[in-house]
Amino acid sequence: MAQILIIDDEILLGRSLARALAQRGHEASAVGTAEEGLSLLDKLLPDIVLLDMQLPGLSGLEALKKIRESDPNILVIIVTAYGTIALAVEAMKLGAIDFLRKPLDTDEVAIAIERALAHARLARTVSFYQKREAERLSEEEFLGESSKAREVRDFIQKLSGLSVAKVSELPPVLILGETGTGKDLVARLLHFKSAFAAAPFIEVNCPTLPRGLEEGELFGYEKGAFTDARQSKRGLAEVAEGGTLFLNEIGELQLESQAKLLRLIEQKKLRHVGGLRDLSIDVRIIAATNRNLEQTVKTGQFRQDLFFRLNHVTLTLPPLRERKEDILLLAEHFLHRTSGQKAGPEKPKKLGEAAQRALLSYPWPGNVRELRQLLERAALFTAGETIEPAELRLQAEAASAVAVGSNSEVKVNFGPDGIDIEAVEKQLIIRALEESSGNVSEAARKLKLTREALRYRVQKFGLKY
Question: Which candidate among 19, 144, 333, 446 keeps its CA 20 to 30 Å from the CA of 58?
Fold first, then answer.
């Protein structure tokens, strides 16, 4: 229940309303002037102030300004018998959360109070998670002492320090790099280190958008726009209003959605599927992909105009094998973090000298993500304090290590026993299907195969998809 202060020159009505609210479990007080109410703020610490606009002495709008200056967390509901649209708009601009007209109905006031409290709870919850995400990222950073890691941090610092009035005035950013190099981490750092960190950060994994509903999910739709559109729905671009829309694996976005995205970037506008009017949207676009977009432009899978628009500010993340001097530093960081997540006191595991040499000689086809997962597994299953090569299980990993670059260049570490090419092909198909959530058409696109060709291989290897 809430602490409520009623400021109304009709003091008898104010006291009557206070008793009615007390019967509903609230603690409510009533005073007749703004001056009396302001003097009680520090003593009562109200959650909500019901504020009359027509008051003797200080007016309601002047009192509203002073309440907001005293404590911006106090929720103010304006009440008046002389309400106009202009007055309501002015009060809302000053921070009022609702506007009620006299004569007041007790049930209507109770509903307005519950609505305001629910709004405040939601705002506090969102603020908590945003603050926690920002704190977590401040511990992560983009670690490394190599020149390439420093270049990435410099890029993030310069871009996140740009000063603009609206977030949509920030340029779109295209992040390129192999799987596991940290594209999503960089996108989050760009958002949470900017002046718009308190606004939403909405991440969209483009390959997981349902085919046929992609436009509606991204840009919203109107009731009746298609068979299952039983009610209108806001798109993810609207949900990100004032903040960042991060489109991960943008190379998988369908051409129809690419056209709408281009319009959103250039004109700051979108239109719902089945809608008749444009909506102005203030949002920043960050996109990432491990695909060669120039190649997809040539094959007609990606719009050239969108590629040029996105490619204005581009960051290519280095694979881990090109910054070997960072491997041990990252490994120690992941081991330290893993030990901190376990219950009870436990010293962080250490890497033996042989294990360090093994890590430095490994090609890391899965990049930093693979290193993190491998260290977490080793820390979990190593009984002693020191991790040796056997706990890393790198020999098995290295024997089948195949890395595919963004230009489809294949790098293979054959190891002493060579590789089983059929096993590699099977693993590629399994990974493509897993990353496509079992969608055969999507997995076929990833492997540049026809759907029929992929189905043949699925049957050949006895896979169940």
Answer: 19
pLDDT in tens, 4-27: 999 999 999 999 999 999 999 899
Q: Which residues contact 176 (CB under 8 A, 6 or more apart)?
A: 183, 288, 289, 290, 293, 314, 315, 316, 317, 406
How many other β-carbons are positioned within 10 Å of the β-carbon of residue 445?
A: 19
Per-residue b/e over 26-64, b at no fewer than 16 CB within 10 Å? bebbbbbbbebbbeebeeeebbbbbbbbebeebebbebb
- Both tokens of 417, joined, read 């026993």
Do residues 429 and 414 touch, judged by C-beta distance below 8 A?
A: no
Rounded CA Rg of the chain: 29
Residue 438's Cβ-count burial label (10 Å; 0-12, 13-18, 19+) is exposed
Residue 78: which H helix or E strand, with range? Answer: strand 75-80
pLDDT digits (tens, 9 = 90+) for 232-251: 889 999 999 999 999 999 99
What predicted TM-score, i.e. pTM, was given to this entire model? Answer: 0.66
Q: What are phi and psi of 80, to 5 degrees?
A: -165, 155
